[in-house]
Amino acid sequence: MLTVEQLKQAIKDGEIDSVILSFTDMQGRLQGKVVHGGFFLDSALEDGAEACNYLLAVDTEMNTVGGYSMTSWDKGYGDMEFDLDLDTIRRVPYLEKTAMIQADLNYTTGGRVAVSPRSLLRSQQEKAAEFGFKAVAGTELEFMVYNTSYEDAQIGKYLNLTPANLYNVDYSILGSMRVEPLLRDIRNTMYEAGMVVESAKGECNFGQHEIAFRYDDVITTADNHTFYKLSSKQMAAQRGQSVTFMAKPNERDGSSCHIHMSLRGLDGGLAFWDEEKGQRSALYDHFIAGVLATMREFTLFYAPNINSYKRFAKGSFAPTAVAWGVDNRSCSVRLVGQGQSARMENRLPGADANPYLALSAMLAGGLYGIEHELELPPIMEGNAYDSDAEHVPHTMAEARELFANSAIAREVFGQEVVDHYTHYADVELEQFNAAITDWEVRRGFERH
């Protein structure tokens, strides 16, 4: 990572000539603009930049859609202001002489844009601090690698793609080595860009892999997550390959985004562990209970796309039951570690999750559990898939209804946020219901 002074000097020395100013949209994508280094020094560093507010009110295809209260033709589609977070300055090693800064968003009239994903997470981070805690998290993000370019995939209507591995390579060194040129580049580039890289491993689906990074505070983790997703796609494209973070791109295993989270004291002390008793603290149990109590109502923030819900299948290593267990991968919440490493793993989100929204939901639910001293339900012993525990929503329509009618969501996020993301779900559902899928054509063209 670079300091402001290091960035200034690098621009003056000609080592950096382009600065990407970026923010994260509803879909978890980095949006923004690239400014010339000289203009950054003369203007953008002090004055920031602007972008149209429609960027938080579009569908996945970037089409403007009606129904959002913050933006419309009637309101003239005004601007939002970039509030540059100067703790996020980093080089973009795979682009020549380029740096990136991530930003919060403010209204031009002042005040934080409440529906911005980074604003949501920052609000929950601040609430945790008011309670006396620092929230730390790590995201484990899986993806598929194809030896087909993005352009060829689109032209071929995403059929007959060539996976980088043609068999299950879960933990296979041979399987990883077959894709190592790309994985190595990503690991080393992310290290150069200021991230602490842990490891890479193969996964179960054909061409499926995972690169893990060290945990950090929740905002930094989400910032790193979005930078890593963008970079992986760009670096694959530079090689004539492609990667996808879809939750379920085919009928085999889906791609997950397991989130590990814990609370620390503001001084770094333990919050989730009672050292004298050598066991979980009561506060930890309340936090787990809160995440479980809100899981169904907050699923829209964990699974934000139609495709997200195809992961939730029995015996798939993606959860179906709202349950917790100790090192039990059949549960949606898995507890691991002791002492300083004690943490909970939320196995619900897929790789398509917006990390800011997913982390906001998890942290908000946990803090709600602490605030209301919720009692932890009984531990799940054995196979949660076969249990009588409540199930997570299995369609976006069901998740939408739960979120829209959630009193807890209105309490912790505010009515504006609930309305905004409910409408986001409505747009996705309306567009999907109007689409004719290849499944329908194959089933009905001759036989109906």
Topology summary:
Elements lengths: L3 H9 L5 E7 L5 E7 H11 L2 E3 L26 E6 L5 E2 L6 E10 L9 H14 L2 E14 L3 H6 L17 H6 L1 H13 L4 E6 L5 E6 L2 E2 H21 L3 E3 L12 E9 L7 E2 L4 E2 L1 H14 L3 H4 L21 E3 L6 E4 L6 E4 L8 H17 L24 H9 L2 H7 L1 H20 L3 H7 L4
Helix pairs in contact: 3-10, 6-7, 8-10, 11-13, 12-13
Q: Could you please describe the fold and organization of this structure?
A:
The chain is of the alpha+beta class. It folds into 2 domains: 4-113, Roll (Ubiquitin-like (UB roll)), CATH 3.10.20.70; 124-415, Glutamine synthetase/guanido kinase, catalytic domain (Creatine Kinase, Chain A, domain 2, 2-Layer Sandwich). The chain contains 14 helices and 17 strands. The strands form 3 sheets. Strands 7, 8, 9, 10, 11, 12, 15, 16 and 17 form a 9-stranded mixed sheet that branches. Strands 1, 2, 3, 4, 5 and 6 form a 6-stranded mixed sheet that branches. Strands 13-14 form a two-stranded antiparallel ribbon. Helix 3 (117-130) runs parallel beside helix 10 (355-371) and helix 8 packs across helix 10 (355-371). The longest helix is centred in the middle third of the chain and has 21 residues, at 218-238. The model has no long low-confidence stretch (mean pLDDT 96).
The profile of the biggest β sheet is: 9 strands, mixed
Binned strand content: 15-25%
Number of helices: 14
CATH hierarchy: architecture of the largest domain? 2-Layer Sandwich
How many separate domains?
2
Low-confidence stretches: none
- CATH C-level category of the largest domain: Alpha Beta
Principal-axes geometry comes out as globular
CATH topology of the largest domain: Creatine Kinase, Chain A, domain 2
Q: Roughly how many Å is the radius of gyration?
A: 22 Å
Per DSSP E runs of 2 or more residues, the count of β-strands stands at 17
CATH superfamily name of the largest domain? Answer: Glutamine synthetase/guanido kinase, catalytic domain
The separation of the N and C termini measures: 60 Å
Oligomeric nature of the chains: single chain
Question: Which class do the helix and strand fractions yield?
Answer: alpha+beta
Q: Helix content range of the residues, please?
A: 25-40%
